[in-house]
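Narrative of activities, Objective 1.

The group set out to show that a structural description can be obtained from nothing but a protein's sequence at a throughput compatible with the screening campaign. Below is one input-output pair from the validation batch, recorded exactly as produced.
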Amino acid sequence: MRYLLTVCMLMCLFLIALPSISALKGSWLLDLVVNFQLTYALLTFFLLIVTFWLVRSLFLISFCLYVVFTIVNFASLLPAVPNLTGHSVSDDVYVFQGNLSYYNADMDALYDFLDKKNADIYILFEVNDTQREAFGKLANGRPNLGYAQIEGLPAGMGIISKYPIVKRHIHQFEGKSAVIIELELLIDHQLVRFYALHPPSPRTKESWQTRNQLLAELKNLVKHHPQQITWITGDINTSPWSYYFPRFDFLTPCIEQVGYYTSWPHSKAVAWLANVVRIAIDHCFMSEHMTILEFKTVTIPNSDHLGLEYRFILNQSR
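Output recorded for this entry:
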C-alpha cells in the first residue's frame, strides 16, 4: 500500500511540475497532458491527505513540493486589480466571444441566444457556413466579416461589430484552419488592431504542429506593431501552462487580468466530470491601453465550449 501510494504521489508531483520542465517542449503527448493542472492539483491534494495518515515521511517533502509548484503554476492566474489610473477615452465595449460548434443541434435556439446578447462585438468560432443567412440576420447591417460571399467564414470564424472595420486582412498559412484574421477597428476615434484565430485541435501530432506554427505566425504578425492598441482573440486549443501558449512583450492574457477560468469541455450530461477536467483554451490578449471591467463565462446552447462575455474600456495615461 505504501509503495503504491509513493508511486502515485511521485507521478502526481511530476505532472504538476510539467509546466516548469521546458526540456519537454518537443513532446506532443506531454504538451497535451500539461494542460490539466487544476485536476492534478486536486488529485495531489487528496493524496497528501492520505499520506499524512499513512506515510508521514513522504508527506513532508511532498507537501513542500506541492506548495512550490502550485504557487508557480497559479500565481499569475490570480485576479488582478484593474488599472484605472488613466482616463477613459471610450465607453465600455461589450464583447461576446465563443465557439458555437459546427454541428450545434439547435441552430434556431443558438442564434436566438446570440441575438438576445445584443453585444457590441461578436467574435464567433465554428460558425456553420450553412447558417450564413442566420449570421447575416444577427449582423443586421452592422460591419462584419463572414456574411459576404467573397470572404466567407475563414476557418469558421465570423466577426460582427457595431464599430467600423477600417481595414481587413485574412492571412492564410499552410495547414488546415491555419488562418489569422487581422482587422482594424475604429472604437470611439481610437484605432484598435484586432486578430482572431482558431488553430486546429491537437488531436494528432500533425495538427499539433500546425497549431504551434500558427501561434508562432501570430507572434510574428503582432511584433510589427508594438505601439498600436492591440487585441487578440481565439479558441487557440491550449492553456497557459503549455510551452506554446503565446506570450507577448506588450500584451497581457485576459486570464492574467481576470483570474483563472475554464472554457472546455462543457457538458450538461456529465457536468461533475466536466467541472473537474475543464481547462481554458478560449483566450483574449490585450495591450496596456485596454482594461477589462467585467468578465464571466456563459453556457452556449448545445456547444461543448463556454463563451466568454466581457466589457472593456480604452484608456490613456495622463
